[in-house]
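Page 42, continued from yesterday. The earlier attempt failed because a stray header line got pasted into the input along with the sequence. Redoing it now with the clean sequence only.
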Amino acid sequence: MQIEDVKVSARSNPSQRIIAAAIVFAFLYFASDVVVTMLLAVLIAYFLDPAVGLLERIHIPRAIGALVVLFAVTAGFAGLGYLVVLRANQFIDAWPKYSSVLRHVTTAFDRQLTTLEKGIDAITPATEKNRTAQRTAEPPPVREWLLRGAGSLYSILVVATFVPFLVFFMLAAKRRIWKATIELFPDENQDRVSGALDEVSSVLRSFVAGNALVAVILMLLSWGFFLWIHLDYPFVLGCASGLLNLVPYLGAVLAWIPPFLIGLAQWNTIGPYFGVAAMVTFLHIVGLNVLMPAIVGRRVHLNALAVTASLLFWGWLWGAIGLILAIPITATVKVICDHAEGWEPVGRWLGA
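This time it went through. Structure tokens are written below.
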């Protein structure tokens, strides 16, 4: 009886890859709180690691240095938050003035919308009117809105509670974690893994530091612009504009909203609104196309198509936080593809 050798191939077929990708995306969606918290902690840890390393070089233990750096950063954000809250309290005290103007604008808009609907009804055939009348839109139940708000609050609490601890543990135990991660791979691949980790560290640190510096520059420029046009609460508006401009593409439009809201009580013509929109958009373009390439350089080198597609996907998957994490995730994927055998063409495409 003839015995035939049976070769077993470990290479997966396309169906298995599709199923595996679907499982990964399902995990990213349903475990978004955990994944986002871990990713934010990794970004912050990479950003703070040079400061901890500097303290370590002057013979301060790494754990103590991580604690000192975390306290210093927390104190800095607390001071900035205190300044913002002081200005925000002034805005809250003056809110009745702005709410009355906003109510007047929304009433006028509703009136124009009602007029438009009546005009459409006048030219709509009778059969279409009957069909439309039968469709009554029910408002969403209050319980649904409360549960949705509770879910968002839970996500914020999870991030605020766990991120500081995760960052501290990542900074304090960096060497052990780094070594253990490299040892997960075979000996012949450890040099390649070490190079990939070094490049990921450089990319993420450059991205976070560059965005932080660009945000500060845009805050100062926006603050000066709002002071120049004598808009109320220029400091709060400058902070909001600088932070919103960090969101690529969409941030330029979102940054219009705060100054437009404040301007309702000060401007009676449409000219200032166009001026604010043009200036905020100009600052966004300068930050995205001039400051970021100059500060970050070619360490985070992604083509425009890859950036846009990543913003669409991660924004759809995780919402606003996905827009912030989209570029570092895609840059990390590019570095991994550059160092993974067989995936080099994907890395070249992402950076083309």
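Notes: Residues 1-9, 135-151 have pLDDT under 50 and may be disordered.
Reminder to self: strip header lines before submitting.
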